[in-house]
Amino acid sequence: xxxxxxxxxxxxxxxxxxxxxxxxxxxxxxxxxxxxxxxxxxxxxxxxxxxxxxxxxxxxxxxxxxxxxxxxxxxxxxxxxxxxxxxxxxxxxxxxxxxxxxxxxxxxxxxxxxxxxxxxxxxxxxxxxxxxxxxxxxxxxxxxxxxxxxxxxxxxxxxxxxxxxxxxxxxxxxxxxxxxxxxxxxxxxxxxxxxxxxxxxxxxxxxxxxxxxxxxxxxxxx
Length: 222
Description:
Elements lengths: L1 H25 L2 H14 L1 H22 L5 E8 L14 E8 L1 H72 L5 H36 L8
Antiparallel strand pairs: 1-2
Helix pairs in contact: 1-4, 2-4, 3-4, 4-5
């Protein structure tokens, strides 16, 4: 039991040390900026915020053009009829009318101001989402780098355990090692293989999570 208890912490220390050393070396910031640019171009929610800005800009133009709705023109045509009638019209021919909606004049500045305010709010929402999106891309990219580093360390540790199992097996066959310690190394080897499979699964999950934002496979990005 002392043999197994000593080796397990040793491998944990090795795993942590290698992971800390490799993370900063594996981060490619130029590649990360490319991932952010691709996400901005492909992610549907970003396009949704861009469309909202366009709609808000159109609302301002519409509010400004609606100034023409304040003025109304009309005309009335009364034919010139010499025949005596019970209620003869005083005016004949074309009669023009020009009307101004005073209430609408007073409302237009506030309507335009409101439209501009809605555009400003929409732009701020878009900017806030963009910052969140950039942070999320970085988070998922760094997570992927971390999972790859952990897999690399666990892969090396599995090779070390495999070598150790081979050595213990030879000593056991020569009668220089007990069956208990040989079985302990076999259990340790199984645990490392299981950890290796878990690490590989973590890589696939992290990769899929990042590709969700990108809208395309990492293999297609050069």
